[in-house]
Each structure stands twice: as structure tokens, then as C-alpha cells.
Amino acid sequence: MTGAPEIALSVIRREGTGRPVLFLHGLASRARLDWPAAEWDPVLAGRPAVLVDLPAHGDSPAVGVLSTSGVVDLLARAVAAGRAGEEIDVVGYSLGARLAWALAGHPGLAVRRVVLGGLSPMEPFALVDLPAARAALAGGPAPADPLTGMILGMATLPGNRPEALLDLIAGLASEPFDPAVDPPRQPVLLLGGVEDPMAEGIDALAAAMQDSRVVRVPGGHLAAPHTPEFRAAVAEFLAGD
Fold it and tell me: N or C terminus of the chain with fewer C-beta within 10 Å?
């Protein structure tokens, strides 16, 4: 695993029996918020869980302006620590899904199945006006661009580190998501909320993969992963051979 600094991410491991499930959360959130035990313990049915706070999120340190490949290397290193070679399933949502896409083919992990929720086929971070966002953080005017304003609003929610999150976004934007490059070869479940405009293109994403299925669930981008329908689809998919 190369390309990543020697930084230890915050990892929560819930013990169990069987193949572990790795959970990757969305932007400006953290593992415990996106994957609460009360919702996901019944889905796991006793399987081990690995929950990672992404760089600059939750209890994980900031990494500065680090490329997508570097972030994925950090994740692979954190997951494999002490359990190298163990086969896992991966569940990612939004930013977590974008990273799970790349993590599926990482040589440092053995990934069996992949769940990608709320994934956009476009690269939103490359469209963020980072100078305007940084100026607003310093007390300047609010960004005129709606996307930049939305991202800044997420980054400045209580408990977040907005400067560190903007650095992370800059690094991810330097290596944009491209669904035509190395799509997962494992079986993939694509999940999208029926009211989530970010997930409207998941049918096109599915067409780029060898073995994929699409399931729509109720809700918008924030609500969809907390619905019973989302959890039921994940449980059914991960139970497959």
C-alpha cells in the first residue's frame, strides 16, 4: 500500500462470527452517525463490523490535500491492520460509496461484495469553488455557487472541521471519480433514494459493471440509508454466495 502518509484512522471494530462488513460513511458525517448499531446490528446478524471515520471526519486526523488514491490507501491500511488477507464485504454511502468503488480493487484487501448507496456518476468536488469557500470561512461573502454553498454548509455543521474538510475535498478533486476507470469486478448492489437527485444516474453506473443490480428505496439523500428498505436490501444482498 503506497501513496498514503503514516496516519492512523479511527476504526471501530464490533466483534462477531463470519465475514466482516466494512462500513464507509458520507461527507461531513462519521461512522456512528451513518451506521448506528441500533439500525445495523440486526442486519449483521452476528457478523463482525468495521466502521472507519474517514480522514478529517469524526475521530480521524486531517490529512491535508491528499489524492483519492492516497485516501484509499489509508483506508485499506486501516482495515487490514491485524487482519491482513481476510475477505470482507463493503458498504459505502455517498462519499463512502465513491471510496468503496476504488477500494474494491485495492491489492491490499480481499473484497467479496460491494454495496454502493447514494453514489453520483458525476464528480461533484471538481465543481466546488474552493477559493470562494475558503474566503467565506475567513469571514467573506457566502459563495455564489449553490453547490459550493451546500458543501460549505455541510462542512461547517457542529462538530466538523471545515478547513480540514475543504483540504480533503481539494485532494479528492485532484483525482476525480471516473466510473469508466476500473469498475468493481465483484457483485455490486447500487442503492438510491427515489427523492435523491444525486443517485439518479445509478442505472448508468450499473451498466458499467459485470455483475450489478439496482434497488430504489424511499427518501432523499440523507434519509435513504436510514430506511428499513435500505437495510433490507443490504441484508439480502450480503447473504448471497
Answer: C
